[in-house]
Request: fold
Amino acid sequence: MTLSQSDIDRAAADLLKAEETREQIGLLSLRHPGLTLDDAYAIQAAQMAQKLASGRTIAGWKIGLTSKVMQRALNIDTPDSGVLYDDMVFDHGATVPKGRFIQPRVEAEIAFVMKSALDGDVTREDVLAATDYVAPSLEILDTRILRKDPDSGQARIITDTVSDNAANAGVVLGTGRHAPDAFDLRWTGAIVRMNSEVETTGLGAAVLDDPVMGLVWLARRMGQYGQRIEAGQIVLSGSFIAPIECPSGTEIDADFGPFGTVAIKFE
Reply:
């Protein structure tokens, strides 16, 4: 790592304040030009410690930047991950209160709910055996860091995103609970409608060619940082669509066909 503990703590405090006040901070990659992924995950972990100390619990994890299109856009070759907290879980069909988020966006994903822990160097078969069920889901994204620096025009990079809990803000689990091998998840996808009009479509194969492999990657990454996926937790395996901007008044419905449906509204 390149940052001191005081730098890490300051960045974490700034991000937590931004989440509370709904006022974005500047790019951490400009504040700390040598910011590494290890630094970014340390900033994420420092926020986790504060949230847990305040009474939050971990509901699960999200995997991001799994598609080649998003990796090329950020000039990276690896996914990222963030933490789902208990206050981030929304019911299917719920309405997000106005002002809850800064710049909400939504992605469609396959969610895994675990029946046993996953730790370290696991295989695809280990993931399937540890999964209680899979379900359609939406991830709500938000950013506590500016997407672009107004002076230099520099866009945020992966270290900014990881520091900001991988832009994670919420999860919606839809209808339908299935054994993890009941569907070919590579061919499981969704028609996503915004305000009753088709906005985009996608297939699970966009996620590392197999959404299950997202959890293999996550378990290995978490093992490097002394963490693990626990029984009962939700894991968002990665989006197979580009993020959809969700200003006030937006309604999102994702039709996964026989796999199920999931919807959310923004007041």
About this structure: The longest strand covers residues 131-141.
